[in-house]
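Incident review: delayed structure delivery

Summary: a single-chain prediction request sat in the queue longer than the usual turnaround. Root cause was a stuck worker, restarted by the on-call engineer. No data loss occurred. The affected request and its eventual output are reproduced below so the record is complete for anyone auditing the incident later.

Affected input:
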Amino acid sequence: MTMRVVPSGPAGSQTVRDHNQRLVLAALAEAREGASRAQLSASTGLTRATVGTLVEDLISDGLVIESSPLRGSRGRPGSPVSLNPDGPAGLGIEINVDYLASCVIDLTGHVRATRIEVVDNRARDPRAVIAAAVALAARVRAEAGLPLAGVGVALAGLVDDRGVLRRAPNLGWRDVDVVSALKVEAHDWIADSSLRVENEANLAALAELWYGERPWLRDFVQLSGEIGIGAGLVLRGQLFRGARGHAGELGHVIVDPRGPECHCGARGCLEQLAGKEALLAAAGVSSLEWLRADATAGKARALEALEHAGVAIGRALLSALNVIDLDVVVLGGVYAGLARWLIPAVQSELSRRVSSPWNPATVLASSLGDDAAVRGAAGLVVHDILSN
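Output delivered after worker restart:
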């Protein structure tokens, strides 16, 4: 599964070489079976001679490999080149409320190693949680056995542009310098220039954009359902972070002012009505597996809990869809596995209330399931390689 990278076109200044290398890498990211130099010339608009020089440089850098010449075609067979699956890779780390996760993604977009550790992080010291996340990542790194170009970190909270987790109500964390703590715990294998930190819902949306099974998705909101609920907004193929990087805090949209008190201090926030723990409690079960089993068996309490959650999600989405004029909603996180029961209620609520009832929003399940955020974290690194 390759990453989609959209270049702008050939450049004509002193940055020609770097820009044109990005063009070639982007073309190779789209060409899943590889491409000959002639095909790269045609798709990028660069001359055959320029492509040949760039390809040789990329091979030397370990980003591209060359295969045996193609046989069975007319004329002189070309030697296809492709992204190097054993080249520099991205490592992703996710720190969430009730689990830690890590994965390694290679240049071609394939997950080479992944692990999830179920653990309740709410009562733990941030340093201890970060140390455990680094230990998990070290095992995944060793399992993948690839050279790392960098590390991306997904966090369940509001993150500023310096990598400080400003607020994570469900974790009980405030002003935690995650970047500094990671560097201390990882010692020499996280370099200063290779560490990126981002909100987990934003990264889940980027993963859907880059690695999802719907290449036509360019404008959408991805709802990431866990114990907390976040949303990532993608506009014209770019993540919209907002002025302070906090766009998408849909979990704290008030759905019912008389509802249960939230960690943020308000009442009736979406995550108190449709978050993972709220959903399990409403269904009277202790796990998502039991919830899915009861829903599949048609048990009334489970179906009622899912319908009420879907209605709450639909109501919370109204403002985002009406203001930003998005027409696609992607249900991710735990919602992906529950989408068959949630989508009808969400879709019905949106169809009744969105300002364009003649053209209602489409509601889809994430094609990546509940590990999208950690894949997006690793994908940050791979995207940087391919586009910069």
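Verification: The two ends are 20 Å apart (CA to CA).
Action items: add queue-age alerting; document worker restart procedure.
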